[in-house]
Design brief:
two-stranded parallel ribbon, 6 strands, globular, alpha/beta, 5 helices, four-stranded mixed sheet
Amino acid sequence: MHYCYYESPVGQLLLTGRDRLETLNFPLGKTRREPEADWTEGTAFFLKVLNQLDGYFDGSLRQFHLDLDLKTQGTPFQKKVWQELQNIPYGQTISYGELAARIGNPSAFRAVGMANGKNPISIIVPCHRVIGKNGSLTGFGGGIDVKKQLLCLEQKNG
């Protein structure tokens, strides 16, 4: 497993991958993760990801174009949710119910929320763009403060 850290405006992010990017983890919150002893540290494997993250955070990149490893992770339902997350435009938000409807299962908004929480590649697969029906910022692996920062960044640069 390759890994590197990325210093972002929302804190230090941990990137991991074997053949492609597999995870993006936050420094705090429920997705926090530490490298394992047999992992290899270095940025060379992640150059394209790092460059695109730079573009995202400086406001010049609206959509990521990366080869992600989402096919080997998650259940078929989770994969469907993660795929649909990538269709939410930069700077826009939708509700969990709307996301459930988009994947053809309008009553599955709670399951969509659970799948959203299991997204292994936050920011790049933009689960932060999903909010509560009433507009509230609910649940996010990196914490609500980080979700708010990401949405503010996109609104400012959109």
